[in-house]
């Protein structure tokens, strides 16, 4: 058995550990360049508190940019240009704070500001542009997630979108994994219920797809089982009671584990289609994953029944199912969870039309789809999406 394993150098997890940010940041450098993924973090005082705690540790800071949307090529290029003109010097490092989109923007900019062969991230993205590689190490980075979703704080890629031409592609390199992760579940308590539901289902989709991926590896699979045991009972409670400490802790921990897992094992069909739904239909990533997950599990049942049963037996050891029933139980539980947290069952409920399916199929071929445990032809994917309308 041969495999490599990647993860952040240090992870600091726990309730109210945000208060330790100053001393952690000081281990990376003397000037923090902050990139935020949510304007609400400024409105509710989190950015002010961050800068105050940094100052106490003798770390100066600058709020470079706040971008609430999923990062576009233009966002990365503009923010990188701002960083470049701030006069990058020894002791500088990046803090990415927010949801997955904000942390992705920070990761991309930390890499692009030190790699100047092209002025645009477009030329470094997978499958588009000039196919340039990141040859220089990014600026050091501290990631502070404020949602429990993508696990971007632990991944080696940043997802970047574009409207014309329409695509959603990754900037990817092993050295893009953040140096430090500070995960304080308390920061996620202000996330509204529908966002909690969507980002939480992204976490669960990542854990399931990484476990059954064609590139699955033993350490990530162990992390996936632990993450699913935390997340499956916790998500509905986090949606229904956003101040529940235990559910917020469990979801934040599960999201972190999902990021480590996908960075090592890849994903599958749900994450293959989700970027296409985002680009062509403007559907938020977590919501797209949630709607696609039951269909993905059904599609892969024929080649991953044993793995589904393993998950069920780990999560619910008290149940005495044979392999077939245990596998079906997992699929049923995912659909029941979607129903409980009010995730739509069909793509048509999200505004997807039959005429969009060819574009969705064409845009679903990427790194995530290549990790699906069995080959899915364009014809089969067309039928799957039509059945979901």
TrEMBL record:
The EC number(s) this enzyme carries: 1.1.1.202
Say which family it is in.
Belongs to the iron-containing alcohol dehydrogenase family.
Name the enzyme's class.
Answer: oxidoreductase
| UniProt entry keywords in alphabetical sequence | Oxidoreductase
Q: What is this protein called?
A: 1,3-propanediol dehydrogenase
Q: Which positions fall inside the Fe-containing alcohol dehydrogenase-like C-terminal domain?
A: 196-387
Instruction: Please report the stretch or stretches of sequence annotated as the Alcohol dehydrogenase iron-type/glycerol dehydrogenase GldA domain.
Output: 8-185
Gene3D superfamilies reported for this sequence: 3.40.50.1970, Dehydroquinate synthase-like - alpha domain
Annotated organism of origin = Gimesia aquarii
What SUPFAM superfamilies would the database entry show?
Dehydroquinate synthase-like
Gene Ontology MF: a single term: 1,3-propanediol dehydrogenase activity
Q: What are the leading ranks of the lineage?
A: Bacteria, Pseudomonadati, Planctomycetota, Planctomycetia, Planctomycetales
The family database entries (PROSITE patterns) matched by this protein are listed as: ADH_IRON_1
